TrEMBL record:
Residues 260-358 form the TonB-dependent receptor plug domain. It is a multi-pass membrane protein. It is found in: Cell outer membrane. Keywords: Cell outer membrane, Membrane, Transmembrane, Transmembrane beta strand, Transport. InterPro entries: Beta-barrel_TonB_sf, CarboxyPept-like_regulatory, Plug_dom, Plug_dom_sf, TonB-dep_rcpt-like. It comes from Flagellimonas marina. SUPFAM superfamilies: Carboxypeptidase regulatory domain-like, Porins. Belongs to the TonB-dependent receptor family. It comes from the Bacteria. This is Carboxypeptidase-like regulatory domain-containing protein.
Length: 925
């Protein structure tokens, strides 16, 4: 019964279609049985005979109930989710075919336009693809012998589609991890794509034979012969490259800056940042981001980021979809993200995808890498102040694995070694730990779970011990419904808290604590509608709990009275959809819409003030009580996410975007930069949500086969309801906080320039940003008006920002790097006079942010030495020798004023005012 399938071709010319006769009917009932048993049952009830190859259907199990239906109905139902077709001959023989069909005739226009030769390079264009027709493959025996041949999809004689979708995933066969930014190219044509951060790809191709090439950094090149009959998937299992690379090349990402539709996207090369000199030798993803245009900080050692003139609280920092509220360790010198556990990092500072919301300026979308499902592996580093260790182990080989990583500091010796008696009793330390579990259930289902915790504590020349922590958990389920549709369900929870323990000389010892918590549930779907439209849509809901603070006496002798600020709660929900529409070969549009809705919830009390009057005790009209989960106030509205890309030339494009956003949570701070004791405030009756509108226009050009990248991008941003503070405001543990703050407008604009060299012994980039950021706090009441109600520079307004990063590779093992930074000094408020009142002298200050501290510049250098490139050894090592601030520039972090012996004196504080040498040893096994 089982014959070679090639026998089918010989029958085509001498048989008629069985459809001329009536197809027999059968009655069947079965549950999870081998498909071959069903075929035997059909043969037992009819005169039909089946011919097929056992290997094609050996793993196929089926279920069904059929009552007096035709055999074709049974076969159509059982085979619809497979790549098996069938052909019925008039003598009762049924041949099963994999992927292909038997055709009795060819379409009239199968050979193309009459008397016109089709150029080889154009055979995959739409002009010659309608209808799809039968697939003929011209076999080259040399090709068959030298590369794998894979048949994809199922031929459909009734389909009039001209192209089909090939999608799948690229996996590192050595460790089971996805391969991001892998170039997937079609040989002999212009088609191609690259894998995303999770290793997935999608490619539109014509039916027929294609040679697919893959290229990537550290991955062996491959060629695969794909015969495409219809939509289908293929996963590339690739090996790591065993050869040393002369230069850093990321083929899959080479043209992304020109081709992608989204403006203002920064992709951090997680592996490449090891060549950027960093303070104290700690490889740092977020610090590397600051070396790129449009992202800056208020000063050296400052935590938080200012993106395109935005405030530090306007950035959504995500680690595996969980929010990190304070991204800084050790006074902002290190970030809380462990580079050894990180797989990818993308920063959206222009057009933010519709799935993200709740922040105005940017999204830092950081993903950890998947654990190694093949073998036990790890990575570690030892530096002067930190140690880092990450271990990965399979749980079920090729299916699931666990990664555990941790960092800790042993930095107290630095404070003790400083020539300053005031620091002799100081201490500062931190640690962070992370665990990730990834499990592939089957080809259609995968789950990932991440747990993270970081902790800092410090005491600097005071009687107070400060501590703060971040905690998050996330659980994700990826499900593939079909070749066109993928879903992702995400549950995450994040918590940030800080505390102060004060142990003074008097009976005023206290313990202070603050905490905020959020839980989010998100469901999103990616749907490939056709070769022109790709849809992303879903919904999300986030529940906030903010405990604004409590203060308790510490010890039995403390005279401090207990104080607790009532809890705040809020619910932020959103619906979102976006369509990436390929209008033609040159124009690509991404149109997204997000509708967000926020409700402030009880149990709470809200103070109601007189209209058209400043908020204070004299204008307070009433205090309203709200029950548990009762809606206090609602806000919301549509958020547009529109971007477009147009090819001027294949390597030269222009992009534009327009978007707006709402933010319902704010920081309360009267510090110049982010502080561990900054608190968060939810919008309510008295405090409105922040809003922003941003327009962007950019030009992107690649040269010499994408060896050089050039980009020029400009933006303009308007903001509303920015939260600021009144002069002398008390923000911590204040029950009437709405009377201490004011809301105003902001505007920011700038131009970002980047030139980057990707290959060669010398590579790196030069970035320049000209930007301005202004705030306007105006009111008809003097106590709520700053600088006469006019626009003034924000605390982080630094017009000129230059970054130069250069790497030079002497040999495969030895390289050197340099990093130079220049920034305009940030604005400050200076005292401009003094006066005597009674027996005391007082000062009065200039308009807010009227002056600037000195400009900032710094040069860092490093030298890297890699271990030998033998494959069979326990670990691959890497030494880094660096000097931070080679010039010994005493860059001011802040300027402050004190009165000494009747005179007002100015002082400046610096973080690193001398060169800081570092030696770090890294090894990977």
């Amino acid at each position: 019964m089982r014959n070679k399938i090639t026998f089918i071709i010989l029958l085509v010319g001498c048989q008629f279609i069985f459809g001329q006769n009536e197809v027999p009917k059968v009655s069947l009932s079965f549950t999870n049985v081998p498909f071959t048993e069903v075929l035997q049952d059909i043969e037992g009830q009819t005169d039909l005979s089946f011919f097929y190859l056992e290997d094609w259907v050996s793993d196929l199990r089926v279920s069904g109930i059929f009552d007096d239906v035709s055999v074709t109905t049974v076969l159509d139902d059982l085979l619809k989710q497979t790549v098996i077709n069938y052909h019925i001959m008039d003598d009762g023989r049924i041949f099963l075919l994999r992927n292909s069909q038997i055709y009795t005739s060819l379409p009239d226009d199968f050979f193309g336009k009459e008397n016109e030769e089709i150029p080889a390079g154009q055979r995959n264009t739409d002009e010659y693809l309608e209808p799809a027709g039968p697939v003929f493959v011209q076999t080259d025996q040399n090709t068959v012998r030298t590369m794998e041949t894979v048949r994809i999809g199922r031929a459909d004689g009734n389909s009039d589609r001209s192209s089909f979708t090939l999608q799948g995933r690229a996996i590192n066969q050595t460790n089971g991890q996805p391969i991001p930014d892998l170039a997937i190219l079609v040989e002999g044509g212009n088609a191609g794509t690259s894998t995303d951060t999770n290793g997935y790809y999608s490619l539109k191709l014509s039916a027929g034979e294609h040679i697919i090439q893959t290229r990537g950094l550290g991955i062996q090149d491959s060629r695969t012969r794909i015969i495409l009959y219809g939509d289908g998937s293929h996963d590339f299992q690739l090996n790591e490259s065993v050869e040393s690379l002369d230069e850093v090349v990321v083929e899959g990402n080479r043209n992304r800056n020109v081709e992608a539709v989204t403006t203002g996207v920064t992709v951090i090369d997680v592996e490449g940042i090891k060549n950027i000199p960093q303070v104290l030798g700690e490889r740092d993803i977020l610090k590397a981001a600051v070396a790129l245009p449009g992202i800056t900080t208020a000063g050296e050692g400052a935590s938080g980021f200012n993106v395109r003139g935005g405030r530090t609280d306007q950035n959504l920092i995500l680690l595996d979809n969980g929010v990190v509220y304070n991204p800084a360790h050790f006074f902002g010198i290190f970030s809380t993200i462990n580079p050894f556990t990180t797989g990818s990092a993308e920063i959206y500072k222009g057009n933010i995808p519709a799935e993200f919301g709740g922040r105005l300026s940017s999204v830092f979308d950081i993903k950890s890498k998947d654990a190694n499902t093949e073998k036990f592996s790890g990575e570690a580093s030892i530096g002067p102040v930190t140690g880092n260790l990450v271990l990965e182990t399979p749980i079920i080989k090729d299916k699931s694995a666990l990664m555990v990583g941790g960092r800790a500091t042993y930095s107290d010796w630095i404070l003790g070694a400083l020539d300053d008696e005031r620091l002799s009793n100081s201490s500062a330390s931190f640690y962070d730990i992370m665990a990730k579990y990834n499990h592939t259930i089957n080809t259609n289902n995968q789950i990932k779970a991440t747990a993270y915790y970081s902790y800092d504590d410090f005491s600097i020349t005071s009687d107070s011990i400060y501590d703060y922590s971040n905690r998050l958990f996330s659980l994700g389920w990826d499900h593939k419904f079909s070749e066109k549709t993928k879903g992702n369900l995400i549950l995450s929870n994040s918590e940030y808290q800080f505390g102060i323990e004060f142990d003074g000389q008097a009976n005023d010892d206290f313990d202070l604590g603050y905490k905020n918590n959020e839980t989010e549930l998100k469901y999103k779907i990616k749907y490939l509608y056709n070769n022109k439209h790709t849809l992303d849509f879903g919904l999300s809901s986030k529940y906030y709990i903010v405990d604004p603070g409590r203060k308790d006496p510490m010890g039995p002798d403390s005279d401090v009275a207990s104080l607790s600020i009532p809890r705040e709660q809020g619910l932020e929900s959103a619906l979102f959809i976006s369509d990436e529409y390929e209008v033609n070969d040159k124009l690509l549009i991404n149109l997204g819409l997000r509708y967000s809705f926020y409700a402030a919830l009880g149990e709470a009390e809200q103070r109601i003030y007189q209209d058209n009057a400043p908020k204070n005790e004299e204008t307070l009209e009433e205090t309203r009580q709200f029950d548990k989960n009762e809606v206090i106030e609602t806000y919301g509205g549509p958020e547009l996410r529109l971007s477009a890309r147009y090819f001027i030339q294949p390597d030269f494009s222009v992009k534009a975007s327009l978007n707006n956003a709402f933010q319902y949570i704010h920081t309360l701070s009267n510090n110049t930069t982010v502080s561990p004791t900054d608190t968060w405030k939810l919008s309510d009756i008295n405090i409105k949500p922040q809003e922003a509108y941003q327009a962007t226009l950019g030009f992107y050009k690649n040269f010499d086969g994408s060896i050089y990248e050039l980009s020029l991008e400009g933006y303009y941003k308007k903001q509303k309801n920015l939260l600021d503070y009144k002069v002398g405001a008390q923000l911590l543990l204040n029950e009437t906080i709405e009377a201490e703050v004011i809301q105003g407008d902001g505007k920011a604009y700038g131009v970002e320039f980047l030139i980057k060299k990707n290959e060669g012994r010398l590579n790196g980039w030069l970035g320049y940003t000209y930007s301005r950021s202004f705030v306007k706090l105006d009111s008809e009441f003097n106590e709520e008006r700053i600088n006469n109600g006019e626009f003034f520079p924000s605390n982080y307004d630094k017009p000129h920002d230059i970054s130069l990063v250069a790497n030079y590779k002497f040999t495969r093992r030895f390289s050197a790097s340099a990093n130079f930074v220049y920034q305009t000094g940030r604005p400050v408020t200076f005292p401009i006079g003094s006066f005597a009142l009674g027996n005391s002298e007082y000062v009065f200050y200039s308009d807010r942010n009227k002056f600037r501290i000195p400009d900032y510049y710094r040069l860092d250098i490093s030298f890297q030495m890699e271990g030998n490139h033998k494959i069979k050894k326990f670990a691959h090592s890497f030494w880094s020798f660096s000097i931070y601030n080679v010039l010994g520039r005493n860059n001011p972090y802040s300027v402050f004023f004190v009165t000494e012996e009747g005179d007002i004196k100015a002082y400046q504080s610096s973080i690193f005012s001398i060169p800081v040498p570092t030696i770090t040893y890294n090894f990977k096994f």
